[in-house]
Amino acid sequence: MRSRLLVPLTLAAVVAAGTSGCSSSAEPARPGVLSVGLGEPGTLLPADVTDPSGRLVTGALWTPLADYDPASGKVTPRAAESITSTDRATWTVRLRPGKFHDGTPVTAQSYVDTWKAISGHHWASSPVLTKSLRAKEITAVDANQLRIVLDRPSNQVPAWLSAPGLVPLPASVLKSRDWNGFARHPIGNGPLRLEGDWQSGSGGKLVRVAADPGQAKEIELRVGNPAEQYDEVKEGKLDVATSVPGDRHEAMHADFADRHAMWALPRAGYLVFSAEATRFADPAVRHAFALGTDRAALESGPLAHQADAAKGLLPPAVAPGERFGSCRPCTFDGPAAKSLLDQAGFTGDAAVYYDSFDGTWPQALAEGLSKSLGISVTAQRKATGGKPTGPSALEVKAVSPSPADLLHTLADAAGYTDAGFAADLNSAETTASPEEAAQLFRVAENQALRDLPAIPLWTAHGHAVWSARVHDAVTTPFAGIDLTRLRD
Question: Whole-prediction pTM value?
Answer without folding.
Answer: 0.89
